[in-house]
Task: structure prediction
Amino acid sequence: MTDVYVVLKESVQVKAEIVRVDDVAQIYTRKDALKARLKEVFVYQLRQKKKSRGKQREVIGALYVLECIEKACPDCCVHLLGETDCLVEWVQEEKAPKWHRIWQALKIVFVALLCFAGGAFSIMAFHNDISITDLFRQLYELVMGEKSSGCTMLELAYSIGLMVGIILFYNHIGKRRITQDPTPIEVSMRSYEKDLTEAMTSAWGREEKTIDVD
Amino acid sequence: MTWIKEVLLVLFGLAGGGVVAGGVFTVFTAVGLIPRFAERTDSANHILLYENMLILGTLAGLITTVYYDAIAAPVQNSIAYGKVSLGLFLTILQYCILILYGFFTGNYVGCLALSIAEIADALPIMARRFSMKRGIGIALLALAAGKLAGSLYYYFHALFETA
Result:
């Protein structure tokens, strides 16, 4: 009996039509030759669906991978670790047409403008909500005892404070990171991707489309 | 002794700015709009760019609100009294800025409104209460159409002038 440890991945992208164990899982066993052989074990043949647009996805169950390995090596004792389902995205190698890259750049510009407009809008909405110009005038008069010109060091300090706050919050100036931590949006991007994968695998399971034993 | 007062003002401004930055931008992150945009457009590797644009947008918004009297109003006056005359070019530029900014802001607010509704789980709960199995797409479309109708009604009937 040889122990084989299999860690199923959460989601993978494959280029070839044939999914092998190496694509969907990390594998460890004491014998190197066996490890190399098991990595190449065939798991699933991806087929072009009729009305497929864009990425094609399949969900492969952990037990199915276990079965494949066990068939290839009957006297192995397979230990499953990691996820219970693996989302496989089939990225077909196309000769990326030129318009595709232009389209991609346009989309990025679109989202960037959206972020710009959104940032401007929410800070303006907030400032209008609290009527910040009046507030600063009142505050200036309260402290200095004279009329404010509307452009005093209070406004300047507020602006600097706002910028410092944003930079500390997002943790980078332009492309230079201040610490090595990921930025808040990178963190929420990661958790959003995780939620997305989980939603898709459970939807596949509900429709019984998961590739699994029985 | 006015410098003590000035120090007080500066401290107040700095602290206020810092806290507002934290508050406003936590909302951005919490509703998770940008990850969605990035996922939709396959551009998760450009998140830094998006964050930078957010920061620049905030800067622009800051100038137009906090410095309204100091910057925006003088510029507006000098254009209005013909001190700066760029003729037709300026008019076209003004309309372009208005249309582009209006379009993207509307887009952003639409996404924000729906993602807040989703954060509060309003849509999934409603779908479950009415035991809707399908038709969520139609419901969403109706919601969007309602928002369009409401927004147009609001502006064309000048509902904002009630107060």
